[in-house]
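Worked problem 6 (solution included).
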Amino acid sequence: MERNSHQFTYAAARAFAAAVLVATIAFAPGPVFAAKASSEDRVETRIKDMHAKLKITQAQEEQWAKVAQVMRDNEKTIEPLIKARVENAKTMTAVDDLKSYAEITDAHADGIKKFTPVFETLYASMSEAQKKEADVLFRRGGKMAKKSK
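Solution. The predicted structure is:
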């Protein structure tokens, strides 16, 4: 059975609309930015939160410092891209919007590539309890599940 051009167009339009929705939610100034905390404050809060949740030991502090520095560096790379996207959102063409989204996506991917090896070294030094906590933390994006009784 062949797909007609309307089915393809409809599917493509839905995919594009979904991508735009995700981009809008992910990069629009909303509750995350409502506190008007600087990007440096947000990343420092994230670093402190992860440090506490992962129960980083004194012996792990040197490796943790490397993880935290990559997080700071990644934020410094991506923050101006997000800021430019927000500031220019009302005047961007569809092509400008896609290019902006691509720049942010590429920066995020590059940041993950830099973060993974330093975190992997830290992870290897963790106790089984710390590893379980890290697994949950990363699986849920930092949103810890309520422990069931």
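Discussion: The longest helix spans residues 94-124.
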